[in-house]
Amino acid sequence: MNQVMKLTQLESEQVQLSRAVEQLVVGQATSDGAGVKLTRVLTQPYQYRLDPFLMLDAFGSDNPDEYIAGFPDHPHRGFETITYMLEGKMRHRDSAGNEGLLENGGVQWMTAGRGVIHSELPEQENGRMEGFQLWLNLAAKDKMCPAWYRDFKSNEIPEFETQAGVKVRVIAGQSHGIQGAMQRATTEPLYLDVAIPAGAQFQQYLPADANAFIYVYRGSVSIGEQQVPLQRMAILKKWPSADGVKVLAHADAKFILIAGRPLGETIAQYGPFVMNSQEEIFKAIDDFRNGRLVS
Q1: pTM listed for this prediction
Q2: What is the side-by-side order of every strand in the sheet holding 221-223?
Q3: What's the start-to-end Cα distance of the chain, in Å?
Q4: CB count in 10 Å sphere of residue 62
Q5: Do 78 and 90 contact (CB within 8 A), yes or no?
Q6: In this structure, are residues 206 and 245 in contact, taking their beta carbons and an 8 Å threshold?
Q7: Could you read off the pLDDT of 209-231 as tens digits, one per residue?
Q8: What is the pLDDT of residue 252?
Q9: Cβ-contact 2, 158 below 8 angstroms
Q10: C-alpha dihedral (65, 70, 71, 73), degrees to nearest 10
Q11: DSSP state of 105
Q12: Rounded to the nearest 10 degrees, how much is the dihedral formed by the CA atoms of 289, 290, 292, 293?
């Protein structure tokens, strides 16, 4: 286990004015891959509002029939995927010969770039499989970059605890002076996993131009006077004078907080391909069909 840094009051962030909740979103139950049941939380209608984020899937089941088939070989181009495993084991392989095993608390950060074909298959026959997959867009100038990925074990994810007993895992970006496992210069994503005890408050600085949301996966929380129930995404309203968000828990709760700087570019998506124009989508499909997707 990695060491959890204990913060003093001076080290904790103090938000002067919190963003409010603009909208609560209920995820859509669906299936993907070879029949894996999941909840699609961030869907296509929200891609421009939550730019640079394209999709968020939440999966969690104790029933192997709902996850055992996994995600066999499938292509991607033009964006990044961040897979965060809360529980379970997932083996991934790709067209470049890379292979790894995601386990409890681990993260895989993959840049599809110009193209990759990969698979994600459970390496367990029973037990709980739970986690998230987030799609992060790439700027037009970066969409055809070489494919890349990195696996982070649970003990490689920085963690800290506030004086109020809030425990935070910093997957990307920075929180309370703690640098996350990953940094990205253009979109500057923030990805936190927050465990907040009853009666505690968590404060997080957010740039004024960043799009941000939380997703509650245990218990419920409040932002201002708005309660955010279990399994709801709360889109955070942009206010020029708001410098962050304050989240209060009346009972023990857990949520992920995600934010990033918008790209402000046209989004063209066809399944696993995300580009800036229909012509680029047609090119991606043609490259895939004719064996040119992967360099």
Answers
A1: 0.95
A2: 201-205, 244-248, 221-223, 226-228
A3: 38
A4: 12
A5: no
A6: yes
A7: 999 999 999 999 999 999 999 99
A8: 98
A9: yes
A10: -120
A11: T
A12: 0
